[in-house]
Amino acid sequence: MNSVKISVIIPVYNVEKYIKKAIESVINQTYKNLEIILVDDGSTDNSGFICDEYANIDERITVIHKQNGGIVSARKTGINHANGDYAVNLDPDDWIEATAYEQVVKIIEERHPDIVAYGMKKEFNGFVADQPIQLAEGQYNKNEFWTEFCNKVSENPFYEQPICMSQCDKVVKTELFKKHQINCDEVLKKNVDDAVIFPMLLDMKNIYIDSRCWYHYCVRNTSILWQTKKGDDIRYKMLALNLIDAYKRYNKMGVCSKEFLLYKLVHHMMMDIPDELFQNEQCNIYPEIKKNNNVVIYGKGVFANRFIENIRMSNYCNIVEIVDSNDAEKLKNIDANKYDYIVIAIFSAAIVLSVIDLLKRLNIDEKKILFIKKNSITSDLLPDEVRDSFLKL
């Protein structure tokens, strides 16, 4: 079982502390017919030298040194050099379990799908949490996939994305991957995976969903996702218009709901330009929160941190405490009269449900628990240009 060749692309930029683990997780795969492409995107630390060292000990490794151009540029370089039947990206500060590609190839040999998608394990502050795909395991044609996907979106009381839009937990036919990676604008810095995976899922013929979690996503608060950068508003609009264009171009059969596209546009707005959430003396995504309310924030991930940052910058309300699952017991020691609301600053529907259950067990008044509800996600939240394009669909 070595007939299928997989190209593993690792974009590398100033990750000398993590890159060895990422590379070794690939070269130690039980499946050996791999092409490993390391794209050194102008690193100024020892990352490039480390890549060269591994190339000297494993003939499957090719190292490409280039001027810094950003994540999209590095991934384009990688896919343009890919000669495998299938391709996959792996971020340089993450890693993949040893039997992952062997299991993927078994599926490919039997089913021949355009895409094999699997779950990930999220590592954060010493904790590891499985994040499986929220669809039943098996093969789907495009219509079947989007029907099940959009049913999941519709049946949930709040935001849901049944399958992660990451490039790193999907092994894709190289021709399909190349088509959509090449179309991705190099100006994009954040959430660049969506600009590739969303149109790819609309363009594919079929996909195999595996319930197992092989990819280890190591959350680091030094990531660009956690930071505010000049031009974020411009890049957000570019990404949003890209998603709208992909919806128009590849959604000819109407397989993807407009409802889900709206969620994606608002989701990225909240992540990239969260200051848009506070307008006209109100909090648009949590409308119950009034100015100068006292709140406890539940969540310490990317969105929670961006949200907290903008609360503090705007002085909209007062933060009494910040907790997550690791220290939620703190809430027992906080007088309920000291806060108006506990705000769950988390997107995942499954996690939000578990948090609500936890808060109830801690005897928190349900009226004080806030989460992102569907009825607060409307096109009115979007910047003018994005909203106008969305409403024309």
Can you walk through the features of this model?
With 393 residues, the chain is α/β, with parallel strands linked by helices. Helix content is 37%, strand content 21%. It is built from 12 helices and 16 strands. Strands 1, 2, 3, 4, 5, 6, 7, 8, 9 and 10 form a 10-stranded mixed beta sheet that branches. A 4-stranded parallel beta sheet has the order 14-13-15-16, with helices on both faces. A two-stranded antiparallel ribbon has the order 11-12. Helix 1 (19-27) links the parallel strand 1 (6-12) and strand 2 (34-41). Helix 7 runs parallel beside helix 8. The protein is globular and about 65 Å long. 39% of the residues are buried.
Order of helices and strands: EHEHEHEEHEEEHEHHEHHEEEHEEHEH
Task: Characterize the largest beta sheet: strand count, sense, and whether it forms a barrel.
Answer: 10 strands, mixed
CA radius of gyration is: 21 Å
| Estimated share of beta-strand residues | 15-25%
Instruction: Report the oligomer.
Output: single chain
Number of helices: 12
First and last CA, distance? 46 Å
**Residue ranges: pLDDT <50 for 5 or more in a row?**
none
Q: Which percent bin holds the helix content?
A: 25-40%
Mean pLDDT: 91
CA-based shape: globular
Number of strands: 16
Short description:
This protein is α/β, with parallel strands linked by helices and 393 residues long.
Give the key terms.
393 residues, alpha/beta, four-stranded parallel sheet
